[in-house]
Amino acid sequence: MLLEGIFPAATTPFYPDGRLYLKKLEHNVDRYSRTPVAGIVILGSTGEAVMLGDEESRQVLHTAREAASPEKVLIAGVARESVAETLRLAEYAAEQQYDAVLVRTPSYYSYGSLEMLTYYRAVADRSALPVIVYSIPKFTRYEIPVELVAELAQHANIIGIKDSSSSVERIAALAAATRNAPRREVMVTPTFAAYTGRMILAESMIENFVAIESLGGTVATAPPPVRVKVMRKKEVGFQILTGSASQLADSLNAGASGGILALAACAPQACQEIYTAWKENDPALAATKQQRVEQASREVLGKLGIPGIKHACDLNGYYGGRPRLPLLPLDSGQQAEVARLMSDLRN
User: Fold this and answer.
1) Would you give the DSSP letter of residue 298?
2) Which of 137, 296, 326, 329 could in theory staple to 143 by disulfide, Cβ–Cβ 3.0 to 4.6 A?
3) C-beta of residue 2 within 8 angstroms of C-beta of residue 159
4) DSSP label at residue 180
5) Active site residues
């Protein structure tokens, strides 16, 4: 699976009483699908995944999958503390035709490199979907060592890492350490975008389409949609995605192929513009676009966290709403500050 570009880390909407608000999740995913982002991450840290029960996680994954455009890469956060439970949710993500799973490092107990290596290899050995390692030390209090990532990169079913260290130097070190990882061919569209499993499924449905006229009917029906032809393959190695919007351009220069970004949950266009300028080899424009998001990234996400991102979503046409307890919504002063910071990042 090709992991290039911007992936919003979608929030999980709740009613004020804490129940899942799935209609608003549909709204958000549908709107992301209309932007130029490469894909969407469901049930990452910004999605408050650790706050959800197993059945709720399945409801969220199903709802998001139903609302997403087939052209968008869908990544499911499936991490649990045990291999068995992680695989159980990964299996459900595969049934829902997700394209990859994002697996956060387990953190409740104290683990060494051997335990972490065993965890990821055991998951990757049995997962029907490709695995993306997820390192977010500010929450897990554990940063997976670069040498261990290099070893995991040799596994045929581990295709990349989301690194939320906020260190460009670490991104560069990861790129250098995984440069000799096995390369694989992935299917891409004629414009070199990712070719998703749901696009393949849609093609299959078109191939099996039966016109009502052939059954002797007389009711006029719309023709089937135009098929998307697979015309190219692209060779990729181990792919690195940054979790830091404030350092996106520098991370891309250091070897990242894109970003899974909380800021993209409320400002996907602003994040996409940085990536597009970088992709088009316009460093001056990329730097300008990068500067535009830096303060919001530092203040809204860095200081106010998920409640801040959710309020920013409310300001920008996406449903944010309240976080789940014990996280608390912003007070009026914090809301005014978020509105100020987001004033130049409207979609």
Assistant:
1) I
2) 137
3) no
4) T
5) 162
